[in-house]
Write a structure and sequence with these properties.
2 helices, UDP N-Acetylglucosamine Acyltransferase, domain 1, globular, alpha/beta, about 200 residues, six-stranded parallel beta sheet, about 20% helix
């Protein structure tokens, strides 16, 4: 059974209804231990890998970041559980700006260079790729650079291919979309089309 601490905040009665007192007695200490281990791991990354990691960063203990990459993470960044940050070869890089939220079970390929700017929200099970193989899946991968602009929201299970190159500021990528080419700023990308956010009938909240 997975205990999601995010549901704990402000909802004590729901937790009790779901887990019961005995289960909570075991879960709370385990949660505290996990938080300590997460902080120690970040300290280790800073000291021995030379990664630049800002303040108030939470990276779930089950998330894996390949040690052979260059990593820079800003302040107030969250990475959910079972997210994989890796590449097909060494030399790639990841740069994440401030106030970024990356949900659980995402795949961030950093064979090339991945830049995620400030205030980006990446929903569950999103895949972002920075490499391609052309027509031959057995060929050596070609590294590319992909930039996710300020304030972008990528919906659940969307896929951003290396050919996308960039997603403009404040764009919204619909759930399940496959992004194959650059996306302009301030648009809603859905059904493979860019729609003006002001005319998309998308509620603000």
């Amino acid at each position: 059974m997975h205990f999601d601490e995010e549901r704990m905040q402000g909802k004590p009665m729901r937790l009790l209804d779901r887990y019961g007192y005995l289960e909570l007695l075991f879960m709370v200490p385990l949660l505290a231990l996990r938080k300590i281990l997460e902080k120690l791991r970040i300290m280790y990354w800073r000291k021995f890998f030379g990664w630049k990691i800002g303040k108030n960063v939470t990276i779930h203990l089950s998330t894996h970041i390949s040690r052979s990459m260059k990593v820079e993470i800003g302040d107030n960044v969250t990475m959910g559980r079972q997210t994989l940050v890796s590449g097909e070869r060494t030399g790639g890089s990841l740069k994440i700006g401030d106030d970024v939220n990356i949900a659980q079970k995402c795949l961030l390929d950093i064979t090339g260079q991945l830049i995620i700017e400030k205030g980006v929200v990446i929903s569950e099970q999103v895949n972002i790729y920075t490499h391609s193989h052309g027509r031959n899946p057995k060929s050596r991968s070609r590294a590319h650079s992909v930039t996710i602009g300020d304030g972008v929201w990528i919906g659940v299970r969307a896929m951003v291919l290396s050919s996308a190159r960039s997603i403009g500021k404040q764009a919204i990528i619909g759930a399940g979309e496959v992004v194959r080419s650059p996306v302009k700023a301030n648009v809603l990308f859905i059904d493979g089309k860019e729609l003006n956010l002001n005319n998309s009938h998308l509620p603000e909240k």
